[in-house]
Specification:
Layout lengths: L1 E3 L3 H8 L6 E4 L6 H6 L2 E4 L5 H14 L5 E3 L2 H14 L6 H8 L1 H8 L9 E3 L3 H11 L3 E5 L9 E3 L13 E5 L4 E10 L2 E13 L5 E7 L7 H14 L4 E10 L2 E8 L7 H9 L3 H9 L13 E6 L5 E2 L3 E2 L9 E6 L6 E2 L10 E7 L2 H13 L2 E2 L1
Parallel strand pairs: 1-2, 1-4, 2-3
Antiparallel strand pairs: 5-8, 6-7, 6-8, 9-10, 9-12, 10-11, 11-14, 12-13, 14-19, 15-18, 16-20, 17-19
Helix pairs in contact: 3-4, 4-5, 5-6
Length: 378
């Protein structure tokens, strides 16, 4: 397989499939682990498409790839282009182009039930002001190609300061309600809703994801399933993992964004802990031509929680991760003494977090509270 832009966690999943792996990634993304375990690591910048295609094409002539796959935001579009040019299985080109651009996503669903969020390209402050006059505050201003909530701003008051705008920006009406992400898997155009994850938001902007919780049973919501599958059809999703972000207010669903890749923040691991379905290896097997079975939701819960500490210098800290309970499935701690805690403006400014799973939501919340009670900084 040709694997584009993986994290080490995705490579570990791919290695479990017992296939020969060539990695194509950007120099700053390559790790020692990847150089050690991949057959070969090809390095090039993903925004240099001629170099990207030459690297993939030349290696394909020497050692033909059976398929190409990616699980990361910046790898999806290049992987789809390579699949189309080499004529091997891989992500859909149309779907990848739509998902990579938030404006194209809105345009793709505009004529469907999922097209109930108003939007326009935000080329200048005058365009934003006109949009606000027509549709009223609050509105959401966001870059079309950014990830991790970077630079996403909710304008709530008249006269708020705007960033430097241009072709790469859009403004849309604010979607009220509780936010969820829906993890999906598609096989030859047949969609499956694997897990539904409740998003917990915070940070300076109020839109930074500070936690995710997979609730058992929400995949059985027929109205939600039908709405999600409409989105997937509209963006041209044909095969593989999908990640749809939606806000629900009563019986109304509003699309936030969608992707033909796994959700970030290790949501793929939450889904696997809660449902028993490994979407990553299943996607690899699917593109390799193997049969994939979607299991029934086994009714468990899982959550990832990111720490939120006030700004300031770290004098000391404490946490239970030297010897964590067995139900802590992953943890990360990024703070050290003398560090300055920055404001939480996007997903890239987090201080660490942890994953727990449980048989019930009550047990899940108790475990989260227990870890938080043993963690702190001063």
């Amino acid at each position: 397989m040709l694997l584009l832009g993986p994290t080490d966690d995705y490579l570990k999943k791919a290695l479990s499939c017992d296939m020969e792996i060539t990695i194509l990634t950007e120099p700053w993304r390559a790790s020692a682990f990847q150089h050690e375990h991949a057959r070969k690591v090809l390095l090039t910048c993903f925004d240099d498409f001629p170099a990207l295609l030459l690297a993939a094409g030349d290696e394909h002539l020497l050692n033909a790839f059976d398929f190409v796959v990616s699980f990361t935001e910046y790898g999806m579009e290049p992987a789809a282009v390579i699949a189309a040019i080499l004529q091997i299985p891989g992500p859909s080109l149309r779907c990848s182009l739509i998902c990579r651009d938030k404006l194209r996503t809105r345009q793709a669903v505009e004529s469907t039930l999922a097209g109930n969020v108003l939007f326009i390209k935000a080329e200048s402050p005058a365009v934003v002001e006109t949009f606000i006059l027509a549709h009223h505050l609050p509105v959401v201003l966001k870059p079309r190609f950014a990830t991790g909530s970077q630079q996403v701003t909710i304008l709530r008051q008249p006269g708020e300061r705007l960033p430097e705008l241009g072709e790469g920006w859009m403004v849309e009406s604010f979607a009220p309600g509780q936010e969820y992400s829906c993890e999906t898997f598609t096989i030859e155009g047949q969609h499956h809703l694997v897990a539904v994850t409740e998003k917990l938001l915070g940070g300076v902007s109020g839109v930074v994801e500070v936690g995710h919780r997979v609730h058992a049973g929400m995949t059985k919501d027929n109205a939600l399933r039908a709405w999600i599958f409409t989105v997937l059809d509209s963006i041209g999703m044909t095969s593989g993992v999908g990640h749809i972000e939606v806000k629900r207010e009563g019986d109304t669903f509003r699309l936030i964004e969608c992707h033909n890749r796994p959700g970030g923040d290790r949501i793929w691991q939450l889904a696997e802990l809660a449902t028993g379905f490994d979407m990553i290896t299943a996607c690899i097997h699917l593109f390799a031509g193997s049969t994939v079975q979607i299991p029934i939701d086994n009714g468990r819960c899982a959550a990832i929680t990111y720490f939120q500490f006030p700004e300031g210098e770290v004098n000391t800290f404490w946490h239970p991760f030297g010897s964590p309970p067995e139900w802590v499935r992953w943890h990360e701690w990024r703070l050290s003494e003398g560090m300055s805690i920055p404001p939480l403006t996007d997903s890239f400014h987090r201080h660490g977090g942890f994953i727990v799973d449980a048989d019930t939501l009550q047990e899940l919340n108790q475990r989260i509270s227990h870890v938080l009670s043993l963690t702190g900084v001063s």
